[in-house]
Design a protein that fits this description.
By secondary structure, the chain is of the alpha+beta class. It has 9 helices and 23 strands. The protein has 2 domains: 118 residues, Creatinase/prolidase N-terminal domain (Creatine Amidinohydrolase, Chain A, domain 1, 3-Layer(aba) Sandwich), CATH 3.40.350.10; 236 residues, Alpha-Beta Complex (Creatine Amidinohydrolase), CATH 3.90.230. The strands form 9 sheets. It has a 4-stranded mixed beta sheet with strand order 1-2-3-4. The protein has a 3-stranded antiparallel beta sheet with strand order 7-8-9, covered by helices on one side. The protein is elongated and about 80 Å long.
Length: 376
Amino acid sequence: MSGPSPSLIIAASEADSNLYYACRFLAPDPFVYLEVGGKKILLMSDLEVDRARAQARVDEVLSLSEWEGKARQRWPQPRLTDTVTLLLEGYGVSAVEVPADFPLELADRLRERGLTVTPRPHPFFPERVIKTIEEIAAIEETQRHTETALEAALDVLRASTIRGDQVIHRGRPLTSEDLKKVVNVSLMENDCIAEHTIIACGEQGVDPHNQGSGPIHPNQGIIFDIFPRSSQTRYYADMTRTVVKGRASDELRRLYDAVLAAQLRGIELIRAGASGGAIHTEVARTMEGRGHATGVVDGRQQGFFHGTGHGVGLDIHEPPRISRLDYELKTGQVVTVEPGLYYAGRGAVRIEDMVVVEDGGCRNLTRAPKMDLLEL
């Protein structure tokens, strides 16, 4: 058979972004996607077959029960892989490429039936890396809702008062959980789903993925990292801001200024054809040049010890990376630029925007301010 190798996915599109990308049909239970000779085919249960025929962006939707009936003529109690084997035979397919995370059990059963099953390296659909105008618009819409949610939380901080070592809102100490609830409810009201929102105060922010808990304290950095998915389009956004309720210390301001300078330098360097590895090196050099070293202190990594950025789309982390792993940036990619500095006992700062790579530079999809956030 000439042309691209046939592709096979068996998964639930609610959890598998490759499958959703391929057919644009959302379902909670696994179903079969086959692409052969440029034709896209779904094999669906009776529960979903009519909806798939109306909604899926494919060429043909077949009934699983009908094909199971055909499979019973050969096997008394056919498994799904037996039915899929028959389907592949019907389309003259003896070899398929599957995603790298394709279930091993299913692959083994297909091989037992004489099929050649070959994993295709990630990304399964290379075209996913380059976003269409429609996809960029979807990401940008999610970003607007992300900014609305951040502003709702900042309004709570602005309306709160400082009493000793506490931040008081509506008569009681304000907590990370309170602020996350404000963010997450705002996102829900705009048809977005919050996933592991980070609001980490003080020392909690020194661990970049600490989601934060307990009281918000005055005069300490508060890292807001918000990365929701739209329940309508399925596209993510990603944004981080560092704020202070009260007054930031001189040390925290120095960290903030260094991270902001590095982030702006990174954004300045992003363009089609640029090296992600070289950009990451320059971002790190910018912060090191301001006296902020990276290394192990008391058995713990401190400084700038993560990548500068990553792709965003139907997954929160997609190729390309802007990190020590080198990728050449291409027009149409959506990437984050999110340097950070983390020092135990001194403070933590991270600032993150999303940008679209263009031929002569990049376009920033993030509008939320980065200045005037250290004295709310």
